[in-house]
Amino acid sequence: MTTLTKMIDDCEVLLRPYVSEEDCHSDYLTGKNYYEWYYTYGQFFDPVAVMEIGVRYGYSAVAMGLGARNLQSIVLIDDGSGGVRLSAGADRVRLACPGVQIVTIEHSSQSLTPAMIRQMASVPFDLVHIDGWHSREGVLRDLMLAASLAADDCVLIVDDTGRHPSLPPVANTCADVRDGIQDFLVRRPDFSLYATIATHTGHTILRKRS
User: Fold this and answer.
1) What CA–CA distance (Å, rounded) separates 186 from 179?
2) pTM confidence score
3) Cis ω for the linkage preceding 124 (within 30 of 0)
4) What is the separation of C-alpha 16 from the centre of its chain, rounded to a whole number of angstroms?
5) Is there a contact between 111 and 83 (Cβ–Cβ < 8 Å)?
6) Percent of the chain residues past pLDDT 70, beyond the cut
7) Which of 45, 125, 131, 175 is a plausible cystine mate for 54, CB 3.0–4.6 Å?
8) What is the pLDDT of residues 91-100, one digit of tens each?
C-alpha cells in the first residue's frame, strides 16, 4: 500500500467562506483530520474529472476542488435522503470552483446506471468519492457504478471505513462498508487496495490498474 501525507495541516481557513454558520464549530472542520485529507487528494491525485456519490453540504467536494490544479468537471450525485437538497451543496461547489463544470444528478445512486450518467456528464472519471449508502449491498452497488465509469488509474475513495482510534467506534456501519469493499474487490480484480487513511471517519482508497 501507498503512504500518503497530508499536504495541508489546517483546512479551516480555506473552507470557512463556504461553511454554514451552524457547521463552523463541527469536529469535522476544526479537528484538522478530515477535510485536510480531501484537499490532499485534490493536490496529490490532481484529477481532471471527479464524481461524488453522497454530497450533503458539499464540503468534501469543495476541499478537493480547492486542492486540485487541473480540475475541469465534477458530477455530484445525491437524492436528498439525508435531509439536505443537492442544490445546497452544489451551490457551494460552484462558488469554490469557478470555471469548473458542475453536473448535478438528484437521484439515488442505487438505481442509476452508467448509461444514465454518460447521457448527462463527460466520462470517464479520474477520482470518485463515495459517501452514499452504508449497507454492504449499497456500498457494493456504488463501487460497481463507479468502476464502470473509471479511467485507467482512477482512484475510488470510500468514506466511513473506520473511525480514528481517538474517537468512539460507530457500531456496524464501518464493518458493513468494509465488507462491501471486499465484495467489490472480488468482483473487480482490476482494482486493488491503494491506501487506508485514519481520518476522522476513516478512508479506504482503491485504484484501478492501468
Assistant:
1) 11
2) 0.94
3) yes
4) 19
5) no
6) 95
7) 131
8) 999 999 999 9
